[in-house]
Amino acid sequence: MSKSFSGGIHPAYNKAMTAEIPIADMPLPDKVRLPLSQHIGAPCKPLVAKGDTVAMGQKIADSDSFVSAPIHASVAGEVVLVDDQAIEIKTDKEKSRFSGAAQSYNNQGELRQIIREAGIVGLGGATFPTHVKVTPPEGVTIHTFMINGAECEPFLTTDHRVMLEQGQEMIAGSKLLMEACGAEKTIIGIEKNKPDAIEHMSKLIADEPAFAVTGVQVKYPQGWEKQLIKSLVGQEVPDKGLPLDLGIVMNNVATAVAVHRAVEYGEPLLNRVVTVSGSGINKPQNVRAPLGTSVADLVEFCGGLKPEAAKIIDGGPMMGRALSTLDTPITKGTSGILVFNRDEVHLFSEDPCIRCASCVDACPSRLLPNYLALYVKREMLDEAEEINLMSCIECGCCSYVCPSKIPLVHYFQRGKQEINARNRNQ
């Protein structure tokens, strides 16, 4: 049987329009806007002021919090705006050249510090600071490192292209991450709709006894951390637990590449690969764009919008968010920009729940979405929390299958926000 997990769905994957196109490097934009919070954890505080001149790769914001990651100038130029949300830099294209050197280290702590200073976070979308992830608590032993190459979100092909074009760098970065967390082996999990990536990575690790490549069933949300662990090793991460509890650390494909570049070249996280796709864009492709690039500049590089374009999503169609402005910047967590035409965009009215339990069958976390939504609607937050509302991963499987078009994830997000606000007040 194909390796998989309970629940999940099979949406149309729509990856063909970008999967075979090589990554394009985008020219530097005239201006970048770098938000101070591009990661899970404490937001950064500016280290520069308006009018300062910065070099490409210079650290411009940081935090004293352990769960945080610094931000670097993705271009050289003049700082034209600093506020409590972001830093804007007017690009000096002639001076925007990064020059760095290999970073040496003597122990795990120093290696983790290099990763931290490079501002590296999980590039699969979660944006959890990588140096925190590879620092297990005292008394916890990590035996297995995993690379998440599932990329289960429809349309997105960034990890696919990175594996094909930067696979060797990914292996090198994985070795560094293994060293940082103390793991003895690495498993690379790739969905079987990427046979070329499975074949390519298998060849690259042929002489690496500590590495293995495993093809997993094509099913959404296969790329979610807990589900992929279940598929790869048959173990379940405890409810409210972490992969650390099983002696496992998992990172994204592009995260491993970024770690390699931080150590080998002294290069902080300055850019990322973004899938620009959908029926409403003239030239779908994967683009390596400087962080802080506006969606408008990215769309223009991809040939602009088609006349019928009606909706733009930051991320994938299942977990992404609709954008209200093209001035939105590309951040460390931006995996895709999707554009859809008018005939693909529908507004639905919510009908009463018919108790079909389709949402229960689809839920990969084995929750009761129908009851969770009902409790949130009725402000019964204690009851929602008791049946594990906070364990919802907001994957959207329940909303996707609901025949009554109930926006279930919307209710779960609202309930979580209210519970978190209540806990903070208490």
Number of folding domains? 4
Elements, N to C (H/E): HEEEEEEEEHHEHEHEHEHEEHEEEHHHHH
Oligomer kind: single chain
The fourth-level CATH homologous superfamily of the largest domain is NADH-ubiquinone oxidoreductase 51kDa subunit
Low-confidence stretches: none
Helix content: 25-40%
| Structural class by sheet pairing and helices | alpha/beta
Question: What is the average of the pLDDT values?
Answer: 96
Report the major sheet: 6 strands, mixed
The whole-angstrom Rg is 21 Å
Description of the molecule:
With 426 residues, the protein is α/β, with parallel strands linked by helices. It contains 13 helices and 17 strands. A six-stranded mixed beta sheet has the order 1-14-13-17-15-16, sandwiched between helices. It is globular. The chain starts with 15 loop residues before the first helix and ends with a helix. The mean pLDDT is 96.
Question: What would a concise description of this structure say?
Answer:
This protein is an alpha/beta fold and 426 residues long. It folds into four domains: 24-91, OB fold (Dihydrolipoamide Acetyltransferase, E2P); 103-265, Rossmann fold (3-Layer(aba) Sandwich); 271-342, Roll (Ubiquitin-like (UB roll)); 358-425, no CATH class.
